[in-house]
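Input sequence (233 aa), recorded before submission:
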Amino acid sequence: MDTRATLGFGWRTLLAWQGLAPLELKVMLLRRLGAQRTAWLAPHLPDSQLRPLIIALPSDFAAQVTQHLDPRAILNTYRSLPDELHLRVARQLCADKQFATAARYAECLTAHQLKLMILGLNDPTAILYIARHMGNMQLIMQSLRGLSAGYLRTLTEAAASTDSFVLAAEVLSGLPLARQGNVCSGLTLETLVALLPLLMEKSGGALREHLPERLRAKLLVLDSLRAQPAVPS
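Predicted structure, token format:
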């Protein structure tokens, strides 16, 4: 159904005026309308008007609008926005602790765009909080595939402070086994104790052959400790 047909006369007049008014005046009007009304209006604007308008909005106001707007309603426009704008709004959402909203918009990006956003944020904790709200694990895996082992280790180590080891294992398990072994080779012992059993389970034990010898020895110790019966209290 064409939602434009449901608009009242006042809104139709406003939309028509949007095509004629200077950009600065449009921005001022939208800020007067507020974030929720702006979000309601956005899907009714053509891409040619909406894109420059979004770019001109202050980041803090754009972040407020995203909390009321389904990104799928403006998907083509959203994906065509500059990467720097995606990053600025994501930073603002993270600063506002709106990680679920950031995740909804991240899931509408391409893998390459998401990779650029991850690198631009450069905040492993915030990235993990966003990822915990995302359902598309395949998109996350694709976006991380080209990152260095060192950066993947940084993200993985942040899992300890965010209680995200299950998520970390889910994402890392999508990498080739040799790459998983390379990432694991530089992790701290604390992280390995929590993560290795999860990765081993997901690989059916095949990861063992791709671990450095010293990690295989540690894995044997972990296996023996888990096999020991619990000591009665």
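Checked by second reader. The chain has 17 helices and no strands.
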